[in-house]
Amino acid sequence: MLKKSSLLIALLFIGLFLPKVGFAHSELVSSTPKQGGEVDEPVSAITLNFGAAVEEFVDLTLTDQEGHTYALEKPIIKEKKVTLLTKKPLESGQYKLYWHLVGIDTHKVHGYMTFGVNQPAPKPSDIKASNESAAGDSGENGSAPAQDNQENRSSTLYIIMVIILTVLIIVGLFFISQKRSE
Predict the structure, then answer these.
(1) Is 103:51 a contact under the CB 8 Å cutoff?
(2) Secondary structure, 3-state, 139-166
(3) Among 29, 52, 79, 81, which residue's beta carbon has the most beta carbons within 10 A?
(4) Tens place of pLDDT for every residue, the chain, 182 residues?
């Protein structure tokens, strides 16, 4: 009876902790612009929300319908949310963003998303107003926030601690059941 209860307790701990650790993959859940969607203004930032925390990107490539590649700033990773800033705003056209990343669970995941930009042609009065506002905004600081790796490290540390604790509990229960059966 003791062996069955020890096994049941061990399985309970594994059932509580391992699904959070072993089965969460960094797959795209939502994005801005939306996957397959279309926006009516230039895009200078792309936000990706994944199902699990992202550790790092191996490759990010943004292309248009003609295969031209667009430069991206270094991704800003905050747990499951990733923000990509373009070096210059994306104008009208269809775009595809490819990624190859390593999730917090160390699994490599790759995928892509598509979106369109349908910006109407500017009127001459809009161009003049845009130039005037750009001249007034020249003192702004356009730097992006630094990547927050501390949160990713603490998540990894938590996962490792849970695994070690689970193994220790299972081993302890095994030895207790062995001593009682003697």
Answers:
(1) no
(2) CCCCCCCCCCHHHHHHHHHHHHHHHHHH
(3) 52
(4) 566 776 677 766 676 665 544 455 678 899 999 999 999 999 999 999 998 888 888 788 999 999 999 999 999 999 889 999 999 999 899 999 999 988 887 888 889 999 999 987 655 555 455 555 544 444 433 333 333 344 445 556 667 877 888 888 888 888 888 887 76
List, in order of start, the domains of the chain with CATH numbers: 2-121+145-181 (2.60.40.1220)
Asked whether the beta carbons of 107 and 59 are under 8 A apart, the reply is no
Axis-axis angle for helices 149-181, 2-22 (nearest 10): 170
What is the pTM assigned to this prediction? Answer: 0.55
- DSSP lists the bridge partners of residue 32 as 47
